[in-house]
Amino acid sequence: MAEQKYLFKMEMTCDGCANAAKRVLGKLPEVKSVETSLEAQTVTVVSTLSSDVLLESLKKTGKECSFIGLA
User: Which residues belong to any copy of the HMA domain (predicted)?
Assistant: First the structure.
């Protein structure tokens, strides 16, 4: 699958929440980069994985999250 840039909405209240997202996604070797925005409550991911796989990983943080679309 070609590399895509995905945008997810994720409930984040602090840097710990943002770091949790980076930590779970960072365990996936197919993830090239992860950017978080506390203000916008978003996570931007560059990866060759599908949005479904990335969303399932983000849900492991225990936070409310959803796929918005391609960034």
Answer: 3-66
Q: What is the 3-state secondary structure (H, E, C) of 6-66?
A: EEEEECCCCHHHHHHHHHHHHCCCCEEEEEEECCCCEEEEEECCCHHHHHHHHHCCCCCEE
| The one-letter amino acid at 36 | T
The CA-based dihedral angle spanning residues 28, 54, 60, 38, taken in that order and rounded to the nearest 10 degrees: 100
- Residues 21-32, mean pLDDT to the nearest whole number: 97
Report, in angstroms and rounded to the nearest whole number, the Rg of the chain calculated over CA atoms. 11
Pull the structure tokens for residue 64: 């409310």
**Which phi and psi (to 5°) does residue 18 adopt?**
-65, -40
Take residue 24 and report the two structure tokens written for it. Answer: 């779970």
